[in-house]
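hey team, just a heads up i'm posting the complex here instead of the shared drive bc the drive is being weird again. everything in one block, sequence lines first with there labels, then the predicted structure for the whole assembly after. its two chains so it's a bit long, scroll down
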Amino acid sequence: MGMQAFLDIFDIYLLEAVINGILLGGVLALLALGLNLIFGVIDVTWICYAELVMIGMYAMYFMVQYYGVSYFVAAPFTILLVAVLGAALHYLVIAPLLTAPPINQLLATGGVLFVLQSFATVAFGIDFRNLGIRLPVLAFGDMNFSYARLLSFVAALFGMVAVYLFMTRTFTGTAIRAISQDRQIMALMGVDTKRIYLITSALGGALAGLAACLLVLQYDVHPFVGLSFGPITFLICVLGGLGNFIGGFIAAFVFAEIISLGGLFSDLEWGYVLAFAFFIVMMFIRPAGLLARRR
Amino acid sequence: MMGQGRLAAWGIGLAALVALPFVYRDPYHLHILVLILIWSFAYTSWSMMGRFGLVSLGHGGFMGIGAYVTALLWNHLGLSPWIGIPISMAAAGTLALIVGYPCFRFRITGHYFVLVTLALSGIVLQVITATRDYTGGSLGYTPNRASGNRLLALQFDDKTTWYLIALAVWLFGIVVWHWVDRSMARYALEAISEDEDAAAAAGVDVTAEKLKITLLSALMTALAGAIYCQYQMFITPDTVSGIAVSLQMVFAAIVGGLFVSLGPTVGAIITILLAETLRIGFGTKAVGWDNLVYGVLLVLFIIFLPKGILGSLLDRLKPQRKVSRAHEQEAVQIVRPGA
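-- predicted structure starts here --
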């Protein structure tokens, strides 16, 4: 094979990886948005966020595979279920700890991570399961893209736009943004912070539910599936600046590209390793997050 | 300072612990004791950072490096664990410095620090899984049986030897804990955990102090991983590395008590006995149940008993304790949410 031919093929793969990275970035951005929302408003990090997604993926699996519900009917129920889980997580675990040191809140959600993982192990076993829906592969020139990824990307964008409209166009959304700016004053202004926290948690849960509906199209579900994209979501949020929605959005796409291009040369896991190395380097350059103002 | 009575109590307790395997030889119970001692050492290593408000969830990564590097060097290069363990500790220490330096230098604290270290242990797990051609991936890894000198290979069949090794390692951890507790570094780190800027203004080198304790903690955790690997002779990424192991350390330290030297040990006793009881009670169906109970207990402990069992007991026994440190006190409530 001549050098030129090699380069041609390489370029096609490279372009394919770049576009796949963008598609992956959509779902990662969705995950980061949910986590950022919770952090920005309630000032707590849900370590178990990816495990909520895992529960949602199981819900999709059972509804579609076991009970034969159509994918598009099952999806709203899954989103609702995870939203309720999010609200319950806040009501049962975070609310009693609101005045405790922040680290305790974080560790308590770590306990919930254990609970959700082992609940899934006990209830569903450790088998890998998939939806059994094989969406066609879209051929574009010499490049192949999976429909599942394309659909996820579009749905993730829709989800983010919906959240944006909710936050800017509704009274509740405005109250949520106000609280994220000043937690103490809003209570004095007559905003029911308890209610807003609960709504925000449900919204964060709903985003996790949406991510679950999309991820289940591409990945097998098992009790530990959260561990494969949980850490990367945390890195994205820290790199973007915790609570910074736009920073998280940009960081999600940067990381997705690194993972996708890294995976081009070797396994996907090495893409994660590259992403982590990149993260460490970025901490030296922009310690307060991508979009932080220089002091 | 340690009183005469307490010193005597420690002496008698230690003598009893050393004498135990010569009097009582039930292999199953000795096995549980060895596990408790090794994990106590790991939890103590974690608590050396945790007690100063440096909550790391990256220790699963350090433990995994300790275990895997030692085993890989032995299997692939035939390097004795006596050399392999220091190398694995150095590797974990280097990683701790690489991640710790930017964190501390650029004031990445609180949530940020937890998330960065959390990602670290996740990444170590990914690397072990990704290099499955060498590490066996998620199926686990077994160090080769030694054909020659057992001492050189650090492989022993009898439980008594392992019990004594584990006891020595555990005691070493407790001694280091007390050494830090009495050092100047402790006061510096306490000042840092209360107010970094004030500590820096008072002349404390914040970055250096934090790096030192992180390095010490990581080195000890790697040692725990290596000892665990040599004892069990079988490791999987899930049992020695990753987020679950990190959370397990936090959990045990908090259940036992973060601010007392024997707290993590008490935590290890409680968690391992709990896991074993559940395992025997549920039989083969136990998979998952022990962690389910763990998780629920962790949440309940953090909500209702944040100082841990031993810590709360000691508080109860000594009602007139000195004013508790800022990071032990509950945060001052400024506005009651929703009021």
